[in-house]
Amino acid sequence: MPLDGTIPFHYTFSAKLGGKGVMASARVQVRTEIEAIRQGLRCSNLEAVFATIHLVLSQGIFLTNYILDLGGSNLVCGIVEALPYTVQFTYFASPLLVRRMRKRKPVVVFFAVAHRASWISLVALLFVDWPSTVKQTLMVLNLLLANACAVIAGNAWFSWMTDLVPPSIRGSYYGRRNVYLGMTSMITLFVGSQILTAFREVGWGNWGYTLCFSIAILSAFYAGYLLNRQYEPPISEVPVMTPRMALGALRETPLLRDFIGFFTIWQFGMECRRRFSACRWCGCWACRRP
């Protein structure tokens, strides 16, 4: 019974129809839950498309060229690309916030929007007459906070989607979702790179970055709006795991420990090659400055 004293619909319906009413109200509630999940899955797919537009236009060749045009060196590019891994410890803030608020949606929406809106500051740095070292320092600090927000939002988002997507359709759902995101990534990368190249060739590189980043920011805000509309299932009680318990689990499962060690070394090697090769290619003839 609600605290305001009102009587919900399914109570009045049950009182009129007796036992049959209870069964009918249960069916209504189940049907309502299924519709909410279906709507949430559709909303999540659409949100992912706009979030991917932001991701493509704010990372990769766009961000690397932006750093180089600010006067940054290959070392600065490496530092920026290492920031997502530097702030991984902020994962622990996400479950603490979710436990306190008893909801994941506010955590995801706030930190996801904060992360994506941080590119407004990067656009502003293009039009201020400050020393290059000051711009680069502010850029690194801005991206450090942005990546911390992304880590916190991502952790809560995974928990949210685990409860939202039914296990029976999880494989097919994420399969279709990845197809949508792959197509979105290809189209966005092609169009965005053409826009940036066209502006740089006529000496308007700053306006090319402004246009690409503005599209990314607008897409991010709409993605945040869709996240806020997305259905969140009731959160279940999660047992508390201390660091000692986590380390104990690693000691008791040697296969998991070996997998983590292998993945760490493999990821380190791949990222060292990928991040600095991006700097090399952005300095080649295809991405040269005008």
Describe this structure in words.
By secondary structure, the chain is mainly α. It has one domain: Growth Hormone, Chain: A. It has twelve helices and no strands. Helix 2 packs parallel to helix 9. The longest helix is centred in the first third of the chain and has 40 residues. The chain starts with 8 loop residues before the first helix and ends in an 8-residue tail after the last helix.
How far apart are the first and last residues' alpha carbons, in Å?
69 Å
Indicate the CATH architecture: Up-down Bundle
Strand content: under 5%
Element string (H = helix, E = strand): HHHHHHHHHHHH
| Derived structural class | mainly alpha
Globular, elongated, flat, extended or rod-shaped: what is the shape?
A: globular
Tell me about the biggest sheet?
none
For this structure, what is the CATH class? Mainly Alpha
Radius of gyration: 24 Å
The helix fraction, in percent, is: over 70%
CATH superfamily: MFS general substrate transporter like domains
Please, how many domains? 1
CATH topology: Growth Hormone, Chain: A
Low-confidence stretches: 1-24, 284-290
Q: In total, how many beta strands?
A: 0
Helical run tally? 12
Mean pLDDT: 80
